[in-house]
Amino acid sequence: MHMIINGKKVDSSDGKTFDVIDPATGKVIDSMPKATEADVDAAVTAAVKGQKVWASVPIHERAEVLYRFLHLVDENKEDLAQTLMLENGKPITEARAEIGNIKIGFSGFIEAAKHYHGELLTPGAEAGQEKHYQMVTREPIGVIACVIPFNFPCDLYDQKVAPALMMGNAAIVLPSSDNPMTLMKLTELLTEAGVPDGAIQCLTAPGAVKEAATRDPRVHFVTLTGSTEIGIRTAEICALNLTPSALELGGNDAFIVLEDGDVDLAVEEMIWGRMYNTGQVCCASKRFIIHDSLKDELQRKPLPASKNSITEILKKTTLRFPAL
Question: Residue 263 in contact with residue 301, Cβ under 8 Å?
């Protein structure tokens, strides 16, 4: 598989690659180009040019392009789901669901952009402006670096790429090196749908090379989903150029069961909330706060499809359940 730079499928500038491994079997699925800083520079240069072209396209035409993309996704949905399953390790049902979310995410951002009509401040809203109307509109930011994690790559692709493109920005996608293949295929489909060269690109790069995009002053915004450690590092780099950033990092979400809570339902939701996607969810339940009156009953409850109680299960895991 190749990277997408300036509308073309390319290898890395030095020809180096890395393997994508099936986490379920340990087998190599495919090899990907290992991008260099020179590749990042080429992508940013193309993005600066491509963004201007894309921004000149009326919003309704951008919408048509992205709806064509969704049609292509639908035609290729099983291939995309199988690819995601292989490289990410998700069960196929969850992989299909995540691919299904692409239509939901993209169409939501498409319609939001089509129905944004600006804001009009009436005369007299500000002192000295009694005889003046003030109109607020939104303009593209420019080039956006989209750093995407391994756990829900397609869902985060939707959330970062769709609004960036609909508002006339160029998006440089930087997926996790663990599972970049599905996002590369989605980027290929966006170029096939008609997003112009440079306006959408995808580079497979290790962390240090991703920083080259974050450092580049021609990148106008960085959106990253990842660990707190990487978020701090990204914020430090962005500060050098005062580059705005949006950082979605780890959470410490509470699962609360009140006195009138349904204990059977609580147990079912508790396991799903903590263990869905093997716990690799930004908003996974991490603190369990149980009303004292339900403590004993909840500890004795057997888990679904298990003869062991929740306390026995938790003793065998690295999880902690301090409320009990």
Answer: yes
**By the 8 A CB rule, do 289 and 323 touch?**
yes
Alpha-carbon distance 182 to 148, whole Å?
12
- The pTM for the full model equals 0.87
In 89-223, which residue ranges form alpha helices assigned H by DSSP?
92-114, 153-166, 181-193, 207-215
Model pLDDT for residues 92-106, shown as the tens digit of each residue? 999 999 999 999 999
Q: Which residues contact 79 (CB under 8 A, 6 or more apart)?
A: 185
Strands 28-33, 221-225: parallel, antiparallel or unpaired by DSSP?
A: unpaired
Residue found under tokens 């129905």: 115
In the chain, what's the furthest Cα-to-Cα distance? 75
What is the side-by-side strand order in the sheet with 3-5?
8-10, 3-5, 200-202, 170-174, 143-147, 221-225, 245-248
Token pair 């593209």 is found at: 140
**Dist CA 96 CA 84 (whole Å):** 9
Q: Is 248 a catalytic residue?
A: yes
Confidence at residue 66, expressed as pLDDT on a 0 to 100 scale: 98
Q: Determine whether 238 is an active site residue.
A: no
* Catalytic choice (37, 94, 282, 312): 282
Q: Phi/psi at 127 (nearest 5 deg)?
A: -60, 135
The dihedral sign for the CA sequence 223, 153, 76, 1:
positive
Cβ distance 299 to 314 under 8 Å? no
Q: In which region does residue 228 sit, left (phi positive, over 0), alpha (psi from -120 to 50) or beta (all else)?
A: alpha
Q: Which residues pair with 253 in a beta bridge?
A: 285
| The pairing of beta strand 200-202 with beta strand 170-174 | parallel
Q: Which of 37, 248, 268, 312 is catalytic?
A: 248
- C-alpha distances (whole Å) from 196 to each of 8, 54, 273 are 11, 7, 40
| Local structure of residue 260 (DSSP, 8 states) | T
Confidence band, pLDDT 50/70/90 cuts, at residue 307:
low
Pick the closest to residue 147 from 222, 233, 227, 40 (CA basis).
Answer: 222
